[in-house]
Amino acid sequence: MAVNPQLNARIVAWLRQRPLGGRHGDGECWTLAEDALLAQRARTSRQLTRGFSAHADYVWGEEEPSLSAIVAGDIIQMRGYRVRRTVTTHDILTGPSGRVGVPLVLSQPHHTAIVLGIVLPGRLVEVIEQNVPMPGSTRPDRLVQINRFALVSCDGPRERRFSDAGDPETVTTRYEVLGGRIRVFHPQP
Fold first, then answer.
1. Buried (b) or exposed (e) across 9-47, using 16+ Cβ within 10 A?
2. In whole angstroms, how far apart are CA 27 and each of 23, 144, 145?
3. Distance (Å, whole) CA 94 – CA 63
4. Rounded to an integer, what distance in angstroms lies between the CA atom of residue 36 and that of residue 12?
5. Shortest CA distance to 56 belongs to which of 44, 67, 65?
6. Where are the alpha helices (DSSP H) in 4-142?
7. Rounded distance, CA 42 to CA 19, Å?
8. Cα distance between residue 111 and residue 79, in whole Å
9. How many CB atoms lie within 10 A of CB 96?
10. For residue 161, which phi and psi values (nearest 5 degrees)?
11. Packing angle between helix 29-39 and helix 5-16, nearest 10 degrees?
């Protein structure tokens, strides 16, 4: 599929200028993506989606069928997406088995997010979005945030952190995609 690298790079640069934790426009997920494309003079979902309405399956450019071909600046459109996220923490006290947190199930009945980067090709991406639950919550919040999005069930990379007490620990997040449809689009000029 045809990726326009310059357009995608401009979309990412524009999005990285959005203040995190603030509301963009009306706080809808669609608004952030639509405005990113408008700002770069790209074709928008209003132009590309037949029968455009708030409940339509939005089209954001040329659809990419291969999850491994997703690049920063692409737009993810989902319907009925559900994921269970479980965090396991390994530190000196918990040993090799680790401390498993309470699984958190997130649901996105109709949602749009924009890819900022690839964490694990074809499996896990970093996205910017709004109108999603803040980390650790299940209540949607209309604030711009950067999150990880699982395209398929997978384990995220091990991350080294420090506990509140300053002790080193390693954290692994398991993403279990429970259902839904994911479509990915390369924006077009």
1. ebbbebbeeeeeeebbeebbbbbbbbbbbeebebbbbee
2. 5, 8, 11
3. 45
4. 8
5. 44
6. 5-16, 29-39, 45-48
7. 22
8. 7
9. 5
10. -140, 180
11. 120
How many CB atoms are located within 10 Å of the residue 142 CB? 16
Q: Long-range contacts made by residues 16-20, C-beta under 8 angstroms, separation at least 24?
A: 16/116, 16/128, 18/128, 18/144, 19/144, 20/143, 20/144, 20/145, 20/146
Residue 14 and residue 159 in contact, taking contact as beta carbons nearer than 8 Å: no
- 103-141 tens-digit pLDDT: 889 888 999 999 999 999 999 999 999 998 776 666 677
Six-digit token pair at 152? 């398929």
What amino acid is encoded at 108 in this protein? Q
pLDDT at 138: 65
Select from 58, 50, 108 the least CA-distant residue to 81: 108
pLDDT in tens, 138-157: 667 789 999 999 999 999 99
Whether the model pTM is above 0.85: yes
